[in-house]
């Protein structure tokens, strides 16, 4: 889904957003979720994401949360539920905004209980 279609969908779903657009001409702003962890997870193949099991988030991965996910694929889906998002989503409230360290696969595997890579 494109940025424009996401913004238009938000207009159709939210009476307040539609009213603001009618009054000011401004559409809701869609953002593309990104973080060092999202970049790392997207660089891993979908098959390998399924083989990294039991990941627990921590500040070392750029998130203030101890949430645990069964697979890296589930983690990526939580971090980035859609390519473009209007408003907020749960992972964004846990993200450490100043975290910009480049993560490598070893960083992720240190937070996993099992990997079959």
What is the total domain count? 2
What overall form do the CA principal axes indicate? elongated
Name the beta content range: 5-15%
Computed over alpha carbons, the radius of gyration is 17 Å
> Structural class of the helix and strand makeup?
alpha+beta
* Main sheet specs: 3 strands, antiparallel
Total helical segments: 7
What proportion of the residues is helical, as a percent range?
A: 40-55%
Order of helices and strands: HHEHHEEHEHHE
Q: Number of DSSP strands?
A: 5
Main β-sheet, spatial strand arrangement: 3-2-5
Poorly predicted runs = none
Our measurement of the CA-to-CA distance between the termini, rounded to an integer number of angstroms, reads 31 Å
What average pLDDT do the residues reach?
93
Question: Any overview of this molecule?
Answer:
The protein has 7 helices and 5 strands. The chain has 2 domains: 31 residues, no CATH class; 82 residues, no CATH class. The model has no long low-confidence stretch (mean pLDDT 93). The chain is an alpha+beta fold. A 3-stranded antiparallel sheet has the order 3-2-5. Strands 1-4 form a two-stranded antiparallel ribbon.
Give a topology summary:
Blueprint: H1 3-13, H2 15-24, E1 30-31, H3 36-43, H4 46-51, E2 52-56, E3 68-71, H5 72-79, E4 85-86, H6 90-94, H7 105-109, E5 112-115
Antiparallel strand pairs: 1-4, 2-3, 2-5
List keywords for this structure.
2 domains; 117 residues; two-stranded antiparallel sheet; 3-stranded antiparallel β-sheet; alpha+beta; 7 helices
